[in-house]
Amino acid sequence: MTAHFVPLLMAAGLTACGVYMLLERSLTRMLLGLMMIGNAVNLLLIDVGGPDGNPPIYWASSGKATDADALAQAMVLTSIVITMGVGAFVLALTYRSFNLTTTDDVGDDQEATRVSQLSDEEVIAAEPDQGVPVSAGELDAVPESEVSR
Length: 149
What we know:
This is Monovalent cation/H+ antiporter subunit C. The protein is an all-alpha fold. It is built from seven helices and no strands.
């Protein structure tokens, strides 16, 4: 199995740019980063799929000595479908976020900021006792008073 250096370098560059864009606060840039990573994976799969050859169809022949690997082509088609599904989901999240907040930037979480500023002693003091049994009503996400309505 031989892989060409230039497509591998292009896949690495696309992955690096995609990760950089994925770490941004804007949902639109996150979407573009996911698409870049998906394209990098497709390029990588095609590159490591082996050399070109005859089409993987029984009656078609182009005069080459070997047949093309149909598994790499099938994996790329599957990857395209998965990337488009994830892209549609993130696009729906972006649309919903823009409708609610009129921006596509992800803001800071106040609770996460508060927890990150706690000292070790405060974290230990805030942990619940592990041996205390919990009633079934405490595990429900909806309080019992609202369920009976």
